[in-house]
Design goal:
Order of helices and strands: HHHHHHEE
Radius of gyration: 22 Å
Largest sheet: 2 strands, antiparallel
Number of strands: 2
Helix content: 55-70%
Number of helices: 6
Length: 195
């Protein structure tokens, strides 16, 4: 435990020094620090990267049932999110005259991808996806414009996770395998079944 605390303190110290060296904590004319823009940009990228990465995983594994489940859950996430935005009409907290704050679409998208990875392939990869989705949620509240408040982000995460849990089941690798080999006039047909 002491090692963990020391490591965290060391990393925080190094981050603070690196930030000073590269100007992360310099402010612009509106009082926003550079790290806020970096955080917001990271959230913008991750909101697409998580569901796209989940889709790529299904294709690489040849898990076409998973691809279909991801498509259903992601489409449901988007439909619910944008329907709620239109129905609720909550004003954005940074003061613009936009009434589409609730729920956060970025957060719903990111948590849809993260929860799919966790639900379909387990916590081995899921925890990393959830941490990245959490970065998206924080970026929506702490970015330079503060597009959402805590409740918007929580609702977006709930929609993303809930939609995924409706359509997604755990991945079960195929138990049956057929292979064929030939050479020098010999032919081999094999059947493998794993219990």
């Amino acid at each position: 435990m002491k090692y963990l605390v020391k490591s965290i303190v060391l990393l925080l110290f190094l981050f603070s020094q690196a930030g000073k060296a590269q100007g992360l904590f310099t402010t612009d004319a509106n009082g926003h620090e550079r790290w806020e823009f970096i955080l917001e940009g990271s959230g913008d990228v991750l909101q697409i990267a998580l569901p796209a990465g989940a889709g790529m995983i299904t294709l690489i594994k040849g898990d076409y049932d998973g691809t279909k489940q991801l498509a259903y859950s992601y489409a449901t996430t988007l439909a619910i999110t944008y329907s709620l935005k239109a129905i609720v009409g909550k004003r954005r907290p940074e003061g613009r005259e936009q009434y589409d704050s609730f729920p956060s679409g970025h957060t719903a998208s990111a948590f849809s991808g993260a929860s799919f990875i966790q639900r379909r392939y387990g916590w081995k990869y899921g925890w990393v996806a959830y941490v990245l989705a959490g970065v998206v949620g924080v970026s929506r509240m702490e970015g330079p414009d503060g597009y959402h408040d805590f409740w918007d982000v929580l609702a977006g995460a709930t929609v993303g996770i809930g939609s995924t849990y409706i359509f997604t089941s755990e991945y079960v690798p195929p138990h049956f395998n057929i292979s064929f080999a030939s050479g020098n006039g010999n032919y081999l047909l094999s059947f493998n079944y794993r219990f």
